[in-house]
Amino acid sequence: MSDTHAHAVAYVRDTMLPQQPPPASEAGAVKWMRENLFSGWFNTILTLVAVYIIFRLLSGSLPWFLGGIWNADSLATCREVLDGATGGCFAVLTERWNQLLFGVAYPNDQYWRPTLAFVLLLVAVAPVLYPKAPRKMLIFTGLYPFVGFWLIWGGTIFAPLVGLLGFVVGYLLFKQVERQSFAGGAALAVVGALVTWWAGGFLVGAAEGVIALEPVPSRDLGGFMLNLILGTVCISLSLPIGILLALGRQSDLPIVKWICVVFIEFIRGVPLITLLFVANVVLAYFLPPGTNFDLVLRVIIMITMFASAYIAEVIRGGLAALPRGQYEAADSLGLDYGQSMRLIILPQALKISIPGIVNVAVGLFKDTTLVSVISMFDMVGMIRGPILASTEWNGVYWELWSFAILLFFVVCYSISQYSQWLERQLQRDHR
Amino acid sequence: MKKSVLLGTLAVAALSAGAAAAATLDDVKARGKLNCGVTTGLVGFAAPDANGNWDGFDVGVCRAVAAAVLGDPMAVEFVPTTGKTRFTALASGEIDMLARNTTWTFSRDVDLKFEFVGVNYYDGQGFMVPKELGVSSAKELDGATVCIQTGTTTELNLADFFRINNISYEPVPIETNAEAQPLYLEGACDVYTTDASGLAATRAAFEDPSAHIILPEIISKEPLGPLVRHGDSEWGDVVRWTLNALIAAEEYGVTSANVEELSAGTDNPEINRLLGSAGNLGEMMGLEADWAKKAIMAGGNYGELFAKNIGESTPIGLARGLNAQWTDGGLLYSPPFR
Question: Does residue B14 fall inside a structural domain?
């Protein structure tokens, strides 16, 4: 039978076929494109339209970028050099970069100070942001506000030292009395700090110019530096204040509760720009002529108030999301209010609130550009005011605004990337 | 502590409000610096250069006053103000004078309690349109979209003009001149209206200025000048006569180049009184005898300031027009120095 069979079949392959590459349409880039770009008539049309749009965008912008002029002293020179060709006039950035970053009036030979302050800022926030960084660095973080202040505003080193001393004295006093009475300790700490600052004021007045950097008044701050200062200070201040407000709003003590509710609802009901106008304009009427209640300080207070009201609501959302059982568990362990908040409630509530907090932080950082409306020369104020009003650069828009967009994007995108990383780190799986 | 500080300052503010109104001159001398309010930036009139030094036509007035009072044209703290913050800055005492292309109007002078000390630029509101729009008169602008700066007199003038001529328009509000340019060029508005000097400066920055025309109608009077607070006439006099000194200097042919030579004494008694080699005009105001000489040396006389910052040799290219001396058919007319 087998013979018959063998003869009945004309041909039987006795070796394996050599391996062939898959058909061109089922492999590599072609397959990927077929699956992802041309998987149906509708997607094909979409793809073609998208390609066309990208082509138009690039063909418009690439020559503009690549053909840009980086060396010229005015827009007119730029146009002369270009002679009708397409190209951006990036010379405005090379000539005015210092004003965009540091403002009009910051002394040129002192640019290293804010730059150093910025680098140190990165060092100071590292242990706060990354749990793996050495814990000892937190000491530097605590010192940073004073170092940063001294570097940016200058003056004698005694001013920030006295500021620091006040906090140290307050803390030591608090530690002494804390055992007997928490409230008494807090009150004593405040008094101690105030006395220290008051006495230190004389020292600072007397020691003017001792170990001093060239003083720079607040009015001379500007550019992206001002945005960063406002953003950093206001975010870091508004987070603790926001937590306190959120807890206060849930408090059983009616006065505390109502103060927090009124504050939050009032601030949230008022546009930030109004608060800034109040800071700049209305306060100037109330203060006696000649008193100089620092404008940057006024703005910082207003933005901080604004941001903390929003952060308070975000955190209240986090608190509300915790199951009732968590509070009861804390109580059943015999923890007092402070301990239960610190050890059980807040860590969970804050974790839930991270996306919301980051959202507020990013929004707040961008909102700092609003100070340009009250005639402060931040990044946007610099562009809208002095640079576009100079005879040389009147009419350069795309280059300047692209630069501003780039800087803001880098900062905001880093913040949001960090928050996503943090969320992954804190994942404790409630799946 | 903050609360007590606030209450205390409120009380002090109430008490000192009357006292602080006077003696700005003494304050400035004691401070050693003049706080001068300027715009956040207007081409030719005020803008900082790459080194952060302010320059421009309005800035020139600030520097002249600083030179007259303090003897140093660089002793000025420039406080940038926007259209919305300028008056509060002056009223609150944050600045000693405002030299910020501000139109002298009745209500600003009387109701807002300021004192305009003179006019350093006679302006008027005009319209700019693209040539291809084919419009030759502002009265043909029925239904046009108009870019207009908010918080300025131009906004009100525009409404008046269109109402009088019984035609309609659609306003596109903008904050600064710099914002208007791209909007106008991209066609977001058919017409851009602001002071004629601003239009000229804006057009000068265009890639193709000849594609745009400034319509012949000037629909308003915009006398722009420096101003001070009500109630301190001595200080008002200082600013007023410094401005007049610059104008008179041009009339008498005193320039920054020859002022040194002329101040030694000339045949013209008016020049002698102006420059302090005769009479005691400076002393009457509480200034040095050579106050006007220093003011003129700061940036030149009125004509020199004009030519350097906004005149026909600059990219802005404004003609003197109404801002010529009265002897040349313009409106500049300084009272005599006597």
Answer: no
**Residue B12 domain flag:** no
Per DSSP, the residues of B5-26 read: HHHHHHHHHHHHHHHHHS-HHH
| Rounded distance between C-alpha atoms, residue A145 and residue A151, angstroms | 10
Per the structure, the complete domain to which residue B132 belongs is given by: 125-220
Q: B114 and B229: one domain? A: yes
Domain count, chain B: 2
Neighboring chain A residues of B39 at a CB cutoff of 8 Å: 385, 389
Which of B94, B206, B232 would you mutate first to test chain A, the one with the most A CBs within 10 A?
B94
Domain assignment present for B16: no
Q: At what angle do helices A137-153 and A158-177 cross, to 10 degrees?
A: 140
How close does chain A come to B69, measured CA to CA in Å? 19
Q: A104 and A377 in contact (C-beta within 8 Å)?
A: yes
Of the candidates B187, B220, B253, which is a domain's last residue? B220
Q: Which of A78, A375, A393, A399 to mutate to test the interface with B (most CBs of B within 10 A)?
A: A375
The residues that bridge with A213 in the sheet, in sequence order, are: A155
Which of B220, B247, B279 represents a domain boundary (last residue)?
A: B220
Distance (Å, whole) CA A67 – CA A85: 8
How do the pLDDT tens digits run along chain B, 338 residues long?
344 444 444 444 444 444 444 589 999 999 999 999 998 888 888 988 888 899 999 999 999 999 999 999 999 999 988 887 889 889 888 899 999 889 899 999 999 999 999 999 999 999 999 999 888 888 888 889 999 988 778 888 899 999 999 999 999 988 777 788 888 988 899 999 988 888 888 888 788 888 998 888 888 888 999 999 998 999 999 999 999 999 999 999 999 999 999 988 889 999 999 998 888 899 999 999 999 999 999 999 999 999 999 988 888 888 898 999 999 999 999 999 98
A75 touches B: beta carbon within 8 Å? yes
Judge if B110 and B231 occupy the same domain.
yes
Residue A149 phi/psi, 5° resolution? Answer: -60, -45
Cβ–Cβ gap B16/A288 under 8 Å: yes
- In this structure, the answer to whether residues B233 and B107 fall within a common structural domain is yes
Does residue B29 belong to any structural domain of this protein?
yes
- Residues of chain B in contact with residue A284, where contact means CB-CB under 8 angstroms, are 88-89, 92, 94
B178 contact residues in A (CB cutoff 8 A):
383-385, 388-389, 394
Q: What is the CATH number of domain A218-431?
A: 1.10.3720.10
Interface check for A273 against chain B (CB to CB < 8 A): the answer is no
Give the ipTM of the model, two decimals please.
0.78
User: Tokens 């003494």 label which residue?
Assistant: B26
CATH number at residue B239: 3.40.190.10
Nearest CB to A375; choose among B51, B52, B82: B82
Domain boundaries, chain A: 17-66, 157-213, 218-431
Out of A79, A194, A384, name the one closest to residue B179 (CB): A384
Beta bridge partners of A223: A378
